[in-house]
Specification:
The protein is of the alpha/beta class and 414 residues long. The chain contains ten helices and twelve strands. Among the domains are: 7-110, Rossmann fold (3-Layer(aba) Sandwich), CATH 3.40.50.2300; 239-414, Histidine kinase-like ATPase, C-terminal domain (Heat Shock Protein 90, 2-Layer Sandwich). The longest helix is centred in the middle third of the chain and has 93 residues, at 112-204. The structure holds adenosine-5'-triphosphate and magnesium ion.
Length: 414
């Protein structure tokens, strides 16, 4: 600010004093623009004027200059305000400083020099505090930007980790799948020969009770191997999926109704939380039913140990890419989410990484092969989706299937 442009509002009810003070100011700043207001009311009318300094006489008839000062400060006027006090107004000076005055001057001791000093001092203080405020604001903004960047970074790291896990799991399963497919065919041939010979022996030596019993148990074991190999082949199956537009709610409902009676008998209550507005999406319905069946059966089995519980099955469309609400509004890349939440004991932390591995099972030998979830994973992956698991400390597991879908399609009844 140049001295020429200095604008001052002087609030002084004594015309002689006003003349004197204006003269002193002009002595120091000949070009200064001084607006003289004799009353507080007139001063308030000019509150929004672009003044560099305000000078208020403390004694203003009915309204003390102190009240005027407080009003200006509550109305966010931050320009310097100098209060002129009279003789013996020491307490007023202290109160004025507390109420936000930039400086005070004893009228009786006022001279061109002291007044000019006070104005200069007030202007410097004002500029410094403005600079400080600007710096603080900038700092605050930078801090917020850093916090936001940090939050985004954490989010990205989390997403990266999930993607990495998914990739590792997919690669691992694909490797095992290739190996399994080769081994299965190698095993099936000799197994067929053993099975043929055993059946022939059974017919030839049907009188030999001891032998027949042994041969029958051999046949049972052969069937067990065939079942395992069948599962492994399903897991490693390379064939394309047979995709047809279908309504997930309908398929889920149909699988649930097969198992529900049995589950109710075991004290498991099923809650369907289906979004009725789901779009139809291309799915291989046989394989998808297989996925639902395994996840629901796993939950049912888990809730045996808690003697029943609740299985919540929900469907919804998540807006935005990968269901990220931040990018909602993007039509393409929307995600259809199916969630199975049970109130069973949950999955141990150390098992969470292993449950998708073929043959990982915590069930007794005759009750599970450990192929269920690895098959589910392969099937969901073939649909371009993901299968994830969450397990809570205090029990309960949630399996989340995310499938790609576009919302432009009309929902189908069902
Ligand atoms: N809802 C669940 N609650 C607790 N543990 C679960 C749940 N679902 C899966 N698991 C764990 O994951 C393991 C692997 O499941 P998966 O379906 O692959 O095999 P399985 O059920 O043991 O055998 P299979 O499905 O071949 O009959 C289970 O043995 C169990 O330990
Ligand atoms: Mg299973």
């Amino acid at each position: 600010m140049t001295q020429k442009s200095l604008r001052i509002m002087l609030v002084e009810d004594d015309a002689d004093d006003a003349l004197l003070i204006s003269g002193m100011i002009r002595e120091a700043w000949p070009q200064a623009a001084i607006d003289h207001n004799p009353t507080a009311r007139e001063a308030l009318a000019g509150i929004n004027g672009a003044y560099d300094v305000f000078i208020f006489d403390h004694r203003l008839g009915e309204n003390a200059g102190l009240d005027l000062l407080k009003t200006f400060r509550t109305k966010n006027v931050d320009a310097p305000i100098i209060i002129l006090t009279g003789r013996g107004d020491q307490e007023v000076a202290v109160s004025a400083m507390k109420a936000g005055a930039t400086d005070y001057l004893r009228k009786s001791k006022m001279s061109t020099e002291t007044l000019a000093d006070s104005i200069r001092h007030s202007l410097t203080l004002h500029q410094e505090s403005k600079r400080r405020r600007d710096t603080e604001n900038k700092l605050h903004k930078s801090h917020q930007e850093i916090v936001q960047a940090n939050r985004e970074l954490k989010e990205s790291v989390k997403k990266l980790k999930t993607a990495q896990n998914q990739l590792l799991r997919t690669e691992k399963l694909a490797g095992i799948g290739r190996l399994a497919a080769g081994v299965c065919h190698e095993i099936l041939n000799p197994l067929n020969i053993i099975s043929g010979h055993t059946q022939a022996l059974l017919m030839e030596r049907e009188d030999d009770e001891v032998l027949v019993e042994d041969l029958r148990s051999i046949m049972e074991e052969i069937q067990r191997i065939e079942k395992i190999i069948g599962g492994l082949l399903k897991f490693s199956r390379k064939g394309e999926v047979d995709l047809q537009e279908m309504n997930i709610n309908k398929e889920l409902d149909s699988v649930l109704s097969i198992l529900e009676r049995d589950m109710n008998l075991e004290g498991v209550h099923v809650e369907r939380l289906f979004d009725p507005g789901l779009p139809a999406i291309p799915l291989d319905s046989d394989r998808m039913r297989q996925v639902f069946l395994n996840i629901i059966n796993n939950a049912k089995y888990a809730m045996k140990s808690t003697r029943g519980g609740v299985l919540k099955v929900s469907t919804e469309v998540l807006a935005g890419k990968n269901g990220d609400p931040a990018s909602s509004g993007e039509k393409a890349g929307s995600t259809l989410r199916i969630k199975f939440t049970d109130s069973g004991p949950g999955i141990k932390k150390e098992d969470l990484r292993k449950i998708f591995d073929p043959f990982f099972t915590t069930k007794p030998e005759d009750q599970g092969t450990g192929l269920g979830l690895s098959v589910c994973h392969t099937i969901i992956e073939k649909h371009g989706g993901t299968l994830e698991v969450e397990s809570r400390e205090n029990g309960g597991a949630t399996f989340i299937i995310d499938l790609p879908c576009t919302r432009e399609k009309e929902p189908v009844a069902g």
